[in-house]
User: Fold this.
Amino acid sequence: MPCPPGLSCPSAGIPRASAGVRRPGGLLLQRADRLASPANPADTADLTGIAPALVVTAEYDLLKAEGVAYADRLRAAGALVGHHDVTGADHGYDASDEDKAREVYPLIAEHVRRALTGRRAS
Assistant:
């Protein structure tokens, strides 16, 4: 089962696998792959087959537009589980605002729980 992507910083690098290069337990990643991110606006690769994802953005985050665009791309690929925008928050809110973190972390945990157990959202 693929690991579900979860982004609280949409432009962060997400490992992308090189086709055909395998190691036990998964694909061997090359340096260029580790620096790539499907959330990066410059990445126009087809997202068909990407693991279902929950995208979390923050209302005042300068990177919010990238997160929204990524959510749109995931939706088009049939892989968007949900998009949650944290009201009144900025980038890194979870390190400085315990209430905002307590609002979002259960959503992320439930997403991971469903992915690991194969349950769908109700």
Summary: The first strand starts at residue 6 and ends at 7. Residues 7-23 have pLDDT under 50 and may be disordered. The helical segments are 31-35, 64-76, 93-96, 98-117. Strands lie at 6-7, 22-23, 26-27, 53-58, 80-86.
